[in-house]
Amino acid sequence: MKTLKILSLLLLFPVLLMGQSAFYDFTVEDIDGNSFAFSQLEGKKVMLVNVASKCGLTPQYEDLQKLYETFADQNFIIIGFPANNFKKQEPGSNEEIKSFCSLEYGVSFPMMSKISVKGDEMHPVYQWLTQKEKNGVKNSSVKWNFQKYLINEKGELEHVINPMVKPMNDKIVTWIEGESK
User: Fold this and answer.
1) Is 101 known to be catalytic?
2) In a domain, 161, yes or no
3) Is residue 121 scored above 90 in pLDDT?
4) Domain that holds residue 94
5) Which pLDDT tens digit goes with each residue over 69-112?
6) Which of 24, 29, 55, 153 is catalytic?
7) How far apart are CA 17 and CA 5, in angstroms?
C-alpha cells in the first residue's frame, strides 16, 4: 500500500512542481450546454475574450465577428466567455446572450456559457490566463469586459490585450498573420 502511495505521488510530482496545466487540457461548457474541449484548438491561434451585452464596449462584437470571418480559414479562432463581473453588464441567461449576439451582431464564433472571470468564483480557464504559476508566462488581471488573451498554436499565452483595444487593431492582426515565437 505504501508503494502505491509513493508511486502515485511520484506520478503527480512533475505536475505539482510545474504548478501549471496545459491550455489544451481544459474542457468548458459552450453556450448551449455542450462540452467544448480545448484540445480541438491545437495548432490554432486563439483569442479568448470576456464579453458583455450591456457594456459601452459591446459594439466590439462587430469587429470580433469581422476578425473571425477574416481569419477563420487561417487557423484562427475566437472564443467568447460572457461574464457578469463588471457592473453587472451581462445579466442575461445563456439563451438571452446567444440570441442577442446572433440577432444584433451575427456572432458565429464559439460562445461559451456565462462564467466569472475574477474573484473567488473565477473560472479555472481564467485562473490559467491570469496566473503565471499556471500559464508559465505572466500574471495579469481582467481589467474590464472585452479583455483579450492571445494564445499561440502551441497553447502558450503570448499577449494580454487591453479591453479598449479594438479587435481589428494592427497589433492583433499582425499577431494572427505572423509566426508565433
Assistant:
1) no
2) yes
3) yes
4) 20-177
5) 999 999 999 999 999 999 999 999 999 999 999 999 999 999 99
6) 55
7) 18
